[in-house]
Amino acid sequence: MSDRTMTAADQPAAGAPAAGSPHVDAGDAGYRKDLKSRHINMIAIGGAIGTGLFLGAGGRMADAGPSLFIAYALCGVFAFFVVRALGELVLHRPSSGAFVSYAREFTGEKGAYAAGWLYFLNWSTTAVADITAAATYAHFWSMFSDVPQWVLALIALGVVLTANLISVKYFGEMEFWFAIIKVAALVAFMLVGIYLVVTQHEVGGHTPGLSIISDNGGIFPSGVMPMLLLIQGVVFAYASVELCGVAAGETENPQKIMPKAINSIMWRVGLFYVGSVVLLALLLPYTAYTGDQSPFVTVFDKLGIPGAAGVMNLVVLTAALSSLNSGLYSTGRILRSMSLSGSAPKFTGVMNKRGVPFGGILLTAAFGVGGVFLNFVMPDDAFELVLNFASIGIIGTWSMIMVCSLAFWNRSKDGRVTRPDYRLPWAPYTQLVTLFFLASVLVLMWMDGGIGRTTVNSLPLIALALVGGWYLVRKRVKQIDEERAGGLTADSPSPR
Length: 496
What we know:
Layout: H1 37-48, H2 51-54, H3 56-64, H4 68-92, H5 98-107, H6 109-138, H7 149-164, H8 168-199, H9 210-214, H10 224-229, H11 231-237, H12 243-247, H13 254-283, H14 295-303, H15 308-339, H16 358-377, H17 382-413, H18 429-447, H19 450-457, H20 459-484
Helix pairs in contact: 1-8, 1-13, 4-13, 4-17, 4-18, 5-6, 5-17, 6-7, 6-15, 6-16, 6-17, 7-15, 7-16, 8-13, 8-15, 11-17, 14-15, 15-16, 17-18, 17-19, 18-19
């Protein structure tokens, strides 16, 4: 390390690695450590419970039947591997740039560039899915039934964007209460569902229990293949589990908080996702569920309890807004890390006085406005279309996390880095198996035909856009890298 004086932009934020550390992300400067343990724990819960369960499970249950719980369990295992690998990297070096910062450290600027823009693809399209879901939920109430879907989508985007721009503390509080509402609702549903199964209380003219499954084609009413083909959609349901890794850069004492939050994800997956889907299968025939209504609302609607379906619909609306809120938050931080290394537009690196990188947040919101137009043009297919493109971004993001984890493991073998006590188990086999699983998801998307095949076929265009974009930004990346040479780096080996 040179004795060259650090500039203000190079100074690490409080809690960031000191000057003697080999890698410091300049994008971490300026953030406030306002997220507490309760925020991170509930953000981890919120990341594991979102639109993919509350809305997506209805259509998937109708397509695959009770076997859907197998898909949720399988994807949940790999989601846990991904977030556990990210957790190890976070304890190595907390950063608001998260996996983009780690990609810069272990694979160079090209890797960071690709990781960041794939993540942006994920959340910019997820934002469209979330506002679409919010508009769909709002149509449940008669007072909104005549309001065009695109108008409701625009209102949802405007409300969440305004809240997200206030401060990270306000974001943390919103997510804290959003997560409590979601967890409380799921616990209430599961308690009611268990009671209905145990007492054999009729639901919509059907007696709950295993007979509901056996009398309607069994666990695989349409065969195994429909369940396998739905895996890409189930992956989308777990899309936010990596959010706690991004939030670590604005957290006090992440070394203590993060392991507890990440370890709890596994049992949450088993309880809330798998448990809820099993109960849905025991309460009503899979044919009773549809893609345009939350399956939880369907159950309470069939029970005929006055107001119960409306309350549950309000809860799932909250889940959609929570997911949108998280997407705006995380992309703002990721884009700022990229901007300060030169691989994203300069305005996405701008912060306000409250430590909010509003430039990146507004860029993601702009794509949300595009989603409003999509809801105007094709309201019936908007959710499914963006879900598939979001899945591409998720697969790319998760793959980069596992590649970084594998590189980190390799460096630990020759002593260049020291693995923390909190580790991804069974490395490097866990990383390799997860990468194989993610590649298999792409194959399944192509086999599914329709929008899924179109999405996979668009991969060369996405790759071409990434390559073209790199040639546009590489001179700026190199210039910034050279300016920082000799001082604290932004994780940046020279662009290759």
